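Sample entry follows:

_____
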Amino acid sequence: MSLHVETLGNGAPLLLLHGWGMHGGMWGDAVQKLAQHYTVHSLDLPGHGASGNIAPYPTRGQCPTRGQCNLDALVASLSEYARQHFSGQMLTVCGWSLGGQIALRWAQHIPQQVQRLILVASTPCFVQRADWLCAMPRAIFQAFEQDLQTNPERTLKRFISLQVRGSEQEHECLTQLRSSLLNREQPHHSALRDGLAILRETDLRTSLPHIKQPVLVLAGECDELTPALASEYLAQHLPNAKMVVIKGAAHVPFLSHTDAFLLRLINFMGNK
């Protein structure tokens, strides 16, 4: 399995991890502007974009169904890539949505590779539980899983529309996301299925106190997929975190409010 990574700029390494069903090209103009300060690595997760699909992985941790690619398998693939390409240099990892959960797991299990985290529209637990209501209702999520079996393209389109709902730039962001998705190969069906399983089963709340790296939590004020209350929980339970809410933004603040997103990220990381 090979990972497709596009690299741009100079300076400290910044690795960008996208969310479910997307690819590394969906960060828009933010990459070019970040590359003025850092070496930006935009990665296609396994089974997405131009990256090969991950091999079936024995059941561990968060995904109970045998043969699924789980969170640990994704972290293992990223860790191996970092070992081969960064010669022990620690990384800033910026994870959006599902990418944020991967980043948290990576920082917890292999802290010697992760210097700091930037969590964008992220949550420790994507689907509601009895003691966790600031998340997607389980019935709605199950409908997405069922729809994926019969019509993956329609499921992706529905998910994209939820990402921009409520944003001040809703129409523009929707157009940009749809265009970006078409710029690379469609994700493997198994990667979509396994990604939904990760989102359904992952609950990182008990892990948060063990993640010691500096963390910037960026939340969209109008996000309906990962509500700002979930970001508040992250900021409160990660030992070294601070939170910024981007006014008027939904689930994709790097597209809808690029300048505000960049300002917060650069202030957190510093220049070269």
